[in-house]
Amino acid sequence: MNQITPPPKIEIIPSTAPFSEAQRSWLNGFFAGLLADAPTPLSAEQGAAVMQGAAGDGDDGEAPWHDQTMPMAERMKLAEGRPLRRRMMAAMAQQDCGQCGYDCHNYSEAIANKSEKRLNLCVPGGKETARMLKSLYEELDKAPSVPSSAPAAAPAPPAAMAEPGRSRDNPVAATFLSRRLLNKEGSEKETWHIEFDLSGSGLDYVVGDSFGIFARNDVGLVDQIIALLGASHTTKVNGKTLREVLIDDVSLSPAPDSLFELISYLTGGATREKARALAQGEDPDGDAATLDVMAVLQKFSGVRPHPEAFVEALEPLQPRLYSISSSHNATPGKLSLTVDCVRYVINKRKRLGLASTFLAERINPGDELKVYVQKAHGFALPQDPKTPIIMIGPGTGIAPFRAFLLDRRATGAPGKNWLFFGHQRSDCDFFYADELNAMKTSGLLTRLSLAWSRDGDKKFYVQDRMREVGRELWTWLAEGAHVYVCGDAKRMAKDVERALVDIVAQFGARTTDEAVGFVGELKKKGRFQQDVY
Hints:
Blueprint: H1 21-36, H2 44-50, H3 52-55, H4 72-78, H5 84-91, H6 104-112, H7 126-140, E1 172-181, E2 191-197, E3 210-213, H8 219-229, E4 236-237, E5 240-241, H9 242-248, H10 257-266, H11 269-279, H12 293-299, H13 307-312, E6 320-323, E7 334-340, E8 343-346, E9 349-352, H14 354-361, E10 368-374, E11 389-392, H15 399-411, E12 417-423, H16 433-442, E13 447-452, H17 462-468, H18 470-478, E14 482-487, H19 489-507, H20 512-524, E15 528-532
Parallel strand pairs: 11-12, 11-14, 12-13, 14-15
Antiparallel strand pairs: 1-2, 1-10, 2-7, 3-6, 3-10, 4-5, 8-9
Helix pairs in contact: 5-6, 5-7, 8-9, 8-12, 10-11, 17-19, 18-19, 19-20
């Protein structure tokens, strides 16, 4: 008697789908039969690809693999087995900062359905994220083809052009008004209060939104690059002079992989191998992290690319986003930012932050620049103006909270306001001190808690001050207060959240696990919001 071999088990519904084992088994059988009856039967892989949307994509709504403080390798490990669009989201380094013009979910969806070809828009993620997105994008073409008889997902409709000034792709002109240094003598920092006139732009905004700025590269840096190329300032590239293109159109830091590829085509031997290695993300000389465009031309000084090929190898100049530190309700037609100026030295050469030094020294009152307002994703004042708020924003993290306070004063919101602010030294780094003290005197600012990390022998931060006043902070939480955090994601925001968990555990009489769950519920209900970078 011939033994009957059972048909191979077909797995269409992935193990990560939100079904029980019994449900998966039934669905696998159902879809296997359905797909087998198609005019051209599908393979298990093709069936899985077709049914991906029906089966769910394994996203639990919390995006646990997507944490800007987590190393790329760990994020990608957590996203293993997920659909491509979810792995693309995991590759992005910041949760919904908006700098790319999307939120992370929509950017990954747009790349996956090929309506967005630009893979380098994730500014916080930089080159590392762009490389991972390129690798994942290449997998799209390797996916099993689906026969025409099988149902196919409808392509996403083309994105409508946003209103003028509401997108990086459709900026408007605003006028630079003024700058004012916020640090006093003795400070190690350089922080500016920057003001713009929006009256001619048609723009408005709400507190919590961000402001996108298209800065221009430093002319001195551009001229040094032109000299290294051995080219003329007036050489025509894409209808403009080389100098104009390098100032307005392309990024000069960090060096993109495509520039290393170009150099590898123009040279040979060990130099070619070194350039190829750098293009593939390797670090043959241990200096890859320091290589901006000028440093690459210095490193490969024997290679002089043609200006057109050189420009083609560079990335487009990206806008920069800043938290708005003013209120449209308080000062209609005006907008302000609080900007740390970035300057540092590598190999005896001074490097400049693009937008921060542009705003600090390369633009003059009355000049126009291209700008847009980026709507906030889940960072806004409570709908009920009576709701108390707790704001934690050291350094330039104070920006949106100055806006919150100005807005609550302008609208007459009766809710209590508590600000935690900190910096290095009280005598020279207390931003907006006169304003904040006046707000406290008037009663608008119910509590002002300060922390100075360099005033004493021991460093003292906002999270340390939170623990000191933990009982009162818990009382505010119990009364329904919303908590806001703005600033550095990798250190401060994590430390603040840990302090909050400890306070909930200690004064709310909960275990650590229960306190973690409590803070998690605050996030789900929109009572714990972060604007971190």
